[in-house]
Amino acid sequence: MNRRALVEETIYASLLRLDAHDFAGFLDICDPEFRYTIGAHSPEIRQDMTWLDHDKAGLRTLFENLPRHKSDRALLSRHATVYSVFSPPDAAEAKAVTALQVFRTTLDGGETQLFAVGKIHDLLRLADGQARLLRRDVKLTTRLLGIGSHIPF
Amino acid sequence: MPRSSRQWDEPPSFPSTHFVDTRVYTDPTLFRDEQVNIFAKTWIIACHESELPSPFDYRTFRHPAGPELVVLRGDDGAVRSFYNICPHRGNVLVHEPAGNAHKLLCIFHGWSFDCQGNCAGITRGKEGYQERFGTTDAGLRGVRTEVGYGGFVWVNMDDDAPPLRAFIGDALELIEPHIQEPLEVFHFHKVVVNTNFKLWHDTNSEFYHDYMHYFNRVTGMLQPGYFDRKYKPYPNGHASVGSMQVRYDKYDGSQERRVGWPGLAPGGWILIDLFPGMTYNLRTSVIRLDTIIPLSPNQTLIEFRGLGLKSDTPEQRASRVRDHNSIWGPFGRNLHEDLLGVRGQGSAMRDATTGSRWVLHGREEDSSIHDEVGMRHYYAEWSRRMGRLASDPFSGAA
Question: ∠ at Cα B22 (B19, B28), nearest 5°?
Fold first, then answer.
């Protein structure tokens, strides 16, 4: 598999596993040094904001705590297109920019609405024919997120 | 045992101060009266001074009474507010939520206004209006503005309203010692939720709903001092809740807060609810400020701000941001749960047909943390200002 295909498949797999609430599976494709953030720029206060910021251990705890919390049970569907992959031939890492749309589907009736759009900026570690997420920064364009979400995008 | 239709519609066996008729959350007439009798007459937080750090900075604000406002810092340093409306043809003057402009220029016909609300120019004015109308006739509508209580920008649509200090009184006495240093906004997001605005303020006015928050149960309710927290009511419908030591380390993945707050004991937490829909929430290392903007009887816009100290080092600020977002950001543990709660109420009370008849505010626990005195105090003020009983709003009695 060429580098681009490897990177794309890893990114798509990470999003499919989050869709499926397969959080252990998501963490399996994260490097031990993984860091995850969600942020947005606020034109109102003219600042960049970081809304979620966890290392791998922090994300694992967040996922483990989910059953203890009251959460919206609507389903989230992540639709992504990997726009660009940058990785020189002999590099051990790759950068990727992915367009992200998140749709929310209600349990009662199954109505689907667009929940958020943004871009994912990934850094992946490449080794032994595998790619692992080393860093993921989700930059949301959407800031009006209704009641929000307990589950990362 | 389930109740019959007749039993369901009977008023609760509490004093009339201890429940409200759900029509206060659904009725369009009451909603319009609230805009006129409450929001158009009370002081409302429009933004924070740190959002206007330089001369000519501006910030827009949708006032809860209806009008769109623009808040401006003048070249003299003063902060003033105006209707964000060109007096010519009613166009919005400022389209972006924040920016810097030496003059406000209406894109429609080029009329311009200075930072003190004076009309600075009317394109081809003499040709069109001769001596009949000029810049002195075309100033913006000024809105009373004061800056205070932690550097917040307060506005009041009522030219004759008492000053801000009279409206607040002693209600912020618990938090005032802790907001003497300059503050700075680092977080802003809006939420539109299908619920009545008072239901959000109700949630901020009672801690009994900590049963909904796993985070608050393990770090607060199960810890010493939680049930010693007391509500204190103040004139004009405001109320405060005293502090305790929150044990953040009791939540898996959390830890004791690395930074504190000037003068606040470690783990401290002070909450002040201000009538008709603002909340100061100082929780150990960060201030959250809620401003409620009702859009319709069953739709509410809430502006959420997070603030630290202007003097923060980058490390201190990063710590406050993490603390804030762990519970209060769009992906935080608590805010999502609070919004789930009021969205559910909004669904069950979306209009008069849904069958919900009464909401109980009947808990009495010596004004301690699960007492519902905060809501009772709020609705006493609501009834006074509306000239209606919240428990029976169409009876003609107040």
Answer: 140
| Model ipTM value | 0.96
Q: What is the tally of structural domains in chain A? A: 1
B381 DSSP β-pair partners: none
Please check whether residue A127 lies inside any domain of the structure: yes
Q: Judging by DSSP bridges, how do beta strands B239-241 and B269-274 pair with one another?
A: antiparallel
Which of A44, A71, A146 has its CB closest to that of B188?
A44
- Containing structural domain, residue B57: 44-164
CATH of the domain at B214: 3.90.380.10
Residues 348-377 of chain B whose Cβ lies under 8 A from any Cβ of chain A: none
Same domain, B158 and B117: yes
Nearest to B322 among A53, A71, A144 (CB): A53
Residue A93 lies in a domain: yes
Question: pTM for this structure?
Answer: 0.97
The answer to whether residues A56 and A27 touch, using CB atoms and an 8 Å cutoff, is yes
**pLDDT mean for each 10 residues of chain B (398 residues):** 94 97 97 98 98 98 97 98 97 97 97 97 98 97 98 98 98 98 98 98 97 96 95 98 94 87 95 98 97 98 98 97 96 98 95 89 97 98 98 86
